[in-house]
Amino acid sequence: MEPNEHEHVIEVTDLRRVYGGGFEAVRGIGFAVRRGEIFALLGTNGAGKTSTVELLEGLAPPAGGRVRVLGHDPYADRAAVRPRTGVMLQEGGFPSELTVAETTRMWAGCVSGARPPQEALRLVGLVEKADVRVKQLSGGERRRLDLALALLGKPEVLFLDEPTTGLDAEGRRDTWELVRALRDGGTTVLLTTHYLEEAENLADRLAILHQGRIAAAGTPAEVTASQPSRISFDLPDGYFLGDLPPLAELGVCGHETDGRVVRLRTRELQRAATGLLVWAERAGVELRRLDVRSASLEEAFLGIAREASESVEEYVA
Ligand SMILES: Nc1ncnc2c1ncn2[C@@H]1O[C@H](COP(=O)(O)OP(=O)(O)OP(=O)(O)O)[C@@H](O)[C@H]1O
After folding, report:
1. Residue 235 in contact with residue 260, Cβ under 8 Å?
2. pLDDT tens profile 96-148
3. Which residues, including other chains, have CB under 8 Å from residue 20's CB and lie 6 or more apart?
4. Does the pTM exceed 0.95?
5. Sign of CA dihedral 80, 186, 139, 212
6. How far apart are CA 137 and CA 118, in angstroms?
7. Residue by residue, what is the 3-state secondary structure of 142-194?
8. Is 118 left (phi over 0), alpha (psi -120 to 50) or beta?
9. Is 169 exposed, middle or buried (0-12, 13-18, 19+ CB in 10 A)?
10. Which of 17, 133, 180, 291 would bridge 26 by S-S if both were Cys, CB 3.0 to 4.6 A apart?
11. Which of 27, 29, 49, when mutated, tests ligand 1's pocket best, judged by the most ligand atoms within 8 Å of its CB?
């Protein structure tokens, strides 16, 4: 039975990958991606993103657990899965003497039901470079050629490994727009990225990997909300930290000072900010350089990576 739009197009359960020598790069992870969803895998260097994506692409068998793509085992049943997926690897590795048009035509010849090569180049904005040799392309243009080739087979599932590395801000935004348009057309997209802004802008849901395990998962808003908000301000002249209302009563879960600057962390932003402002009003003082902000995905990422490092020993998946 083919999956419909409500079913999971990618399902990963207790997935493990062990390299020769016994190093366990993926340590029992699980997630699921619905049809027409953009799912991002984030993580520090060496967290296991590429190792995971390669298992999803069927390039290697897992050491444990289960992967299903479009209802099939992508390694054992590669012939069923491969024609319906598009893969953009970190390094395309094309013959560098061929032109962009020749490379795209050659690739299209290997794909059944391929889109016209010109259409794939148009999607990624490379039509004007059709006659340029691959070796003369800029790094960003090569990434776009990688993407054009991944799109040739009109894939139902698209794997993008760091798709915008090397692209300038405009190229990155163009790629985001294209990926969103593909998603809106029903394509399921799994991407890895180092750019938190990319995940925040593009991903419907994401997972943060750390040392082979999932440290956090959910929508960008859910993952961000798991981290404390921040308040910072300058202590008014003549006042000390102890003059503020008791921080625990304000819902503050952590604080530090740097000269006159006070930085607070709280999971109850409104309560903490209100308490401080009421105190300042009553004391008749101004909280100079007051800055009140929710955590960004970047702060969440750094916080999660830090926490995961500290607690990885007792972490239970
Ligand atoms: N063939 C291999 N043999 C042994 N160890 C490997 C092999 N390939 C990857 N590793 C190790 O597995 C871990 C995960 O690597 P992986 O490339 O999956 O991480 P990543 O999250 O994609 O990292 P990056 O963000 O740096 O691309 C790393 O510690 C890496 O050194």
Report:
1. yes
2. 789 999 999 998 988 888 899 999 999 999 999 999 999 999 888 888 899 99
3. none
4. no
5. negative
6. 17
7. HHHHHHHHHHCCCCCEEEEECCCCCCCHHHHHHHHHHHHHHHHCCCEEEEECC
8. alpha
9. exposed
10. 17
11. 49
Atom of ligand 1 nearest to the CA of 48: 18
- Estimate to the nearest angstrom the gap between the alpha carbon of 93 and the chain centroid: 24
Cβ atoms of residues 38 and 182 within 8 Å:
no
Q: How far apart are the first and last CA of the chain?
A: 31
15, 19, 57, best to mutate for ligand 1 pocket (most atoms within 8 Å of CB): 19
ipTM here:
0.97
Structure tokens at 265: 């962390």
Cα separations in angstroms, 57 against 52, 211, 240, 250, 288: 9, 21, 58, 49, 54
